Amino acid sequence: MADIIDGKAIAADVTAKVKIVADSLLEKTGIQTGLAVVIVGEDPASQVYVANKGRTAKACGFHSVEHKLPEDTSEQALVDIVESLNNDPAIHGILVQLPLPKHIDAGRIIQTIAPEKDVDGFHFINVGKLGTGEIDTAFVPCTPAGSMLLIERVLGKDLSGKTAVVVGRSNIVGKPMFNLLLAANATVTIAHSRTRDLEALCKTADILIAAVGRPQMIKGDWVKPGAVLIDVGINRIDAPEKGEGKTRLVGDADFDSCQAVASAITPVPGGVGPMTIAMLMANAVTSAYRSAGEEAPSF
Ligand SMILES: Nc1nc(=O)c2c([nH]1)NC[C@@H]1CN(c3ccc(C(=O)N[C@@H](CCC(=O)O)C(=O)O)cc3)C=[N+]21
Ligand SMILES: [Mg+2]
């Protein structure tokens, strides 16, 4: 029976450390870490995440700013807001919540964010730095960074000799996860919807990352006995057992059957999700340290 990796508790450790280092920067230099979150439209799930981010930022002692813009905001108006945040010395991190409405070119908005304030790590400069091993001056996307921290808690920092399989090839999770695992010396394969015999490939993994966005797709008999399973999926499914019209959150792995085979597994909720928010805070305070010419702490 696998150990459950307590992402909520590890995220709380990270944010407690973020608060300490943010307070110490403030005391030493007078700089208060500033984080701006921009959301366009009314998607209820997005509203929940943005509220969580704002609350955590305040708990870390940050200057926290939220821009809530209507669904019909023009692309140019959003570019103007991002540019004003780029030029605001009180802001060290900018996050524009994705997805954006269809009439806005999300790629253009991401590339408008100043790379040194791009705490999501989505700008080409940060993607390129991660891809070329310049991790110390990059921003690493929060979900993969948080997933690596969970892996580190179980297996340590050096993954030499371990085989990792990442199921999912998104720019936000799969590709940066590949680079981070590779940088930690794992032997890494990315699998996706066109992969042949996904089940057999998953079964080769000492470290299995489920990031496909399909509820409960990865089953226990796809998992190598003793593997570490990191479930990045957050899917809301119907839960009639809880009552009419009720829903619940599940991951991309079928938790019960996978727990019976793996040695460690992240739950959903309470696994990777809270780590994503914690790593956003870590990236923001790192940005504030860099802006002060101070050595940024590691998390
Ligand atoms: N520019 C951008 N950056 C993001 O990082 C980003 C984004 N856009 N758009 C949306 C996704 C989603 N995301 C989550 C963060 C935390 C939880 C989280 O804390 N989840 C809790 C449960 C929350 C619940 O109950 O709904 C958990 O897994 O335990 C989930 C999802 C960040 N995203
Ligand atoms: Mg299973």
How would you characterize the overall build of this protein?
The protein has 299 residues and is α/β, with parallel strands linked by helices. The protein folds into two domains: 29-117, Leucine Dehydrogenase, chain A, domain 1 (Rossmann fold); 142-273, 3-Layer(aba) Sandwich (Rossmann fold), CATH 3.40.50. Helix content is 40%, strand content 16%. It is built from ten helices and eleven strands. The chain has helices at 7-29, 44-59, 75-86, 106-112, 124-131, 142-155, 174-183, 198-202, 255-259, 272-291, and strands spanning 3-4, 34-40, 63-69, 93-96, 163-167, 187-191, 207-210, 228-231, 235-238, 247-250, 264-265. The strands form three sheets. Strands 1-11-8-7-5-6 form a six-stranded parallel beta sheet. A three-stranded parallel beta sheet has the order 3-2-4, with helices on both faces. The relative contact order is 0.17. It binds 5,10-Methenyltetrahydrofolate (GUE) and magnesium ion.
Question: Which labels suit this protein?
Answer:
299 residues, alpha/beta, Rossmann fold, 6-stranded parallel β-sheet, 10 helices, binds 5,10-Methenyltetrahydrofolate
CATH homology superfamily of the largest domain: NAD(P)-binding Rossmann-like Domain
Overall CATH class of the largest domain: Alpha Beta
Shape: globular
Helicity level? 40-55%
Which range does the strand content fall in? Answer: 15-25%
Element string (H = helix, E = strand): EHEHEHEHHHEHEHEEEEHEH
Count structural domains: 2
- Strand tally, please? 11
Low-pLDDT runs of 5+ residues are none
